[in-house]
Amino acid sequence: LELPLEPRFGREDFLVSPSNERAYALIERWPDWPDTILLLEGPKGSGKSHLAAIWAAQSHGWTVDAFEVGTDRVPHLVSNGALVIEDLHSAGGDEPALFHLLNLARERRAYVLITTAVAVGELPIRTPDLKSRLRLAPSVSLDPPDDALLRAVLVKLFVDRQLVVDTTVVDFLALRIERSLAAAAEAVAAIDREALSRGPRITRPMAA
Questions:
Q1: Which helix (H) or strand (E) element contains residue 66?
Q2: What are the backbone dihedrals phi and psi of residue 125, each rounded to the nearest 5 degrees, phi first?
Q3: Handedness of CA 182, 187, 188, 189 (dihedral sign)
Q4: Which of 63, 72, 124, 161 has the fewest CB atoms within 10 Å, i.e. is most exposed?
């Protein structure tokens, strides 16, 4: 059975390392932010949604995808005082509504955390005022994981699936997969499927 694996987004599940400690520290500093709007940048699987979930729990904020922001929803979304807007890089959002939301949030001193997989200058945004507003907002990046974080995440991913593996398997994978947390998740999922089909324990030859 292909049962879904729900990711755990608690504070205790986030692994801090030099590649993400600046972003984590800024999330922890809330509400002592340099502005009410903060951009959280990083590639797919880098931990943006995990950090956003930690902040949402801390601030009692709501979370919406960027494409869900419409003009009629703006006053309601801002009314909570804290809002996460996920995946700003995804095309198809209502740009005038987003611009209105950021202006209203600033006016009402509501906090907005925006996640994006690309820098502001690379966003597919056609509205100059919205792009200008985003450029003025402070941002923090999640860098590619260092060796220690990549290994720790691999271990966590195996544990989440209740899989027991030898450290040699983790070391083997860390040296050979793309240096990203998304690649780590894909590798562990593939090994889990292979282990279920074969039956025996997970070994380095199987991982290879």
A1: none
A2: -110, 130
A3: positive
A4: 72
Count other C-beta atoms under 10 Å from residue 138's C-beta: 11
**The pair of three-digit structure tokens given for residue 80, joined into one six-digit string:** 């909570």
How far apart CA 179 and CA 35 sit, in angstroms, is 32
Token pair of 168 as six digits: 């040699």
18 CB-near residues (< 8 Å, 6+ apart): 143, 146
Query: For residue range 78-110, what is the model confidence (pLDDT) as tens digits?
Result: 999 999 999 999 867 899 999 999 999 999 999
**How many angstroms separate the CA atoms of 208 and 194, rounded?**
11
CA distances from 173 to 27, 147, 170, 194 (A): 30, 11, 5, 15
Amino acid at residue number 11: R
- Residues 6+ positions from 67 with CB-CB distance below 8 Å: 87, 90, 92, 93, 94
CA 202 and chain centroid, separation: 29
Query: DSSP state, 172?
Result: H
pLDDT value at residue 46? 85
- Whether the CB-CB separation of 50 and 9 falls below 8 Å is answered with yes
Contact (CB, 8 A) for 71 and 94: yes
